[in-house]
Write a structure and sequence with these properties.
Helix content is about 60%, strand content about 0%.
Length: about 180
């Protein structure tokens, strides 16, 4: 019930964040260029170019993460492989940025980053529910007790009373030194 709306929200938030991060770094590059600033003797043009390039790279990274969340929302399936790793990395980035943001920016930015972190985790964790189990051949199928051909409604039971020598039940074998 909650899975798709959360994935849609994560996709929208990450797209907005991608645009905001890209725009912020581009703006900082323009400011450094116009002010002719230098840090520890670095070339101002190199600083401006690297800030703009960093904005493009991080903007594309967050846009790709948003695409992963969008695919989850549209398909209605759990992310797998590359897309799952990408969403996990986005969650880690938000957690680390949240930790640094408390002291540098304030509690409001920390709260925003933690909300996004929680939404990404919710997107990753809620898709491991019923109906996503795989049988031995790698085909998706229902879990025991969820219906399906020949399912009696319960998990297969272990045989009772087939113990080894000296055992009356199915308990563990006695340990001898």
């Amino acid at each position: 019930m909650v899975r798709r709306p959360v994935a849609w929200i994560v996709a929208v938030v990450l797209f907005v964040e991608a645009f905001g991060i890209g725009l912020l770094n581009w703006f900082l590059g323009v400011v450094v260029d116009r002010q002719n600033m230098s840090l520890a003797g670095l070339d101002p043009d190199a600083m401006s170019t690297s800030s703009k390039a960093g904005g493009v790279v991080f903007g594309l990274y967050f846009a790709l993460c948003a695409l992963a969340a969008l695919l989850v929302a549209v398909r209605g399936r759990t992310p797998s492989g590359f897309w799952r790793i990408l969403l996990i990395s986005a969650a880690v980035v938000h957690a680390v940025l949240g930790a640094f943001t408390v002291g540098l920016v304030g509690w409001g930015a920390f709260a925003f980053l933690m909300v996004v972190f929680g939404l990404i985790l919710l997107t990753l964790m809620t898709y491991d529910g019923p109906g996503t189990a795989y049988d031995r051949q790698g085909q998706a199928g229902p879990r025991p007790g969820e219906g399906g051909p020949g399912d009696t409604g319960s998990a297969p039971e272990e045989p009772v009373g087939q113990g080894g020598p000296g055992q009356e039940g199915g308990g563990p074998a006695p340990v001898t030194p």
